[in-house]
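Q: What structure does this chain adopt?
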Amino acid sequence: MFQDIVSRLEAHMIKKALELTNGNQVHAARLLGISRNTLRKKIGEENLV
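A:
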């Protein structure tokens, strides 16, 4: 249950960061404080794109 909440929050934050950066993954990763590779991994895990 807790992991589901964390996953949903993480997905929301990633979507918002990508929205704010017009889909620029490098800039979105910087906003989130993670590497671009980590962002890409999370996008794939959550099927966000």
